[in-house]
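RECORD TYPE: inverse folding
INPUT: structure tokens
STRUCTURE:
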């Protein structure tokens, strides 16, 4: 197999951050504020509700499908706008969309992710918002997500990609 250029986002972003100049700690506050606002939206929209998630998996309500469908539509329009007007990042870099090949590893991973989502009533996005609502049992799910990510990192080279 010929040597291919690694297009993994993680690899490219790590290379970029090594040369970046360090910023003061308070520079991160904007991300904390954005995260808190997103958490409030998640709670108000009831997308962190275990009951709403169970309704979705039992096909009893359109609520979550409407939220997810709206996100897909907004993302598609956003990508179209970025491509059409050749929008660049804040730092002036060109935004490239590289085609990805689908394989059985993604299907297997998606099934595992969906099973975990259905069983726990939580996906990684709103876990911290759920803690904010007082559902402290979610800490177990956060630790499990971290452990799963760690195990994936260990086994990545042996998994189908």
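DESIGNED SEQUENCE:
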């Amino acid at each position: 197999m010929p040597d291919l250029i690694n297009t993994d986002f993680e690899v490219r972003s790590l290379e970029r951050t090594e040369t970046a100049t360090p910023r003061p700690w308070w520079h991160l506050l904007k991300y904390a504020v954005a995260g808190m606002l997103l958490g409030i939206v998640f709670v108000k929209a009831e997308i962190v509700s275990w009951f709403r998630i169970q309704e979705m998996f039992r096909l009893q309500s359109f609520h979550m499908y409407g939220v997810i469908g709206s996100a897909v539509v907004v993302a598609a329009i956003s990508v179209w706008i970025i491509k059409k007007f050749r929008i660049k990042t804040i730092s002036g870099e060109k935004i490239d969309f590289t085609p990805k090949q689908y394989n059985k590893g993604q299907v297997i991973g998606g099934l595992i992710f969906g099973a975990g989502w259905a069983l726990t009533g939580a996906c990684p996005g709103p876990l911290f918002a759920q803690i904010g609502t007082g559902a402290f049992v979610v800490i177990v799910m956060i630790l499990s997500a971290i452990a799963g990510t760690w195990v994936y990192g260990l086994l990545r080279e042996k998994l189908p990609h």
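NOTES: The chain is about 60% helix and 0% strand.
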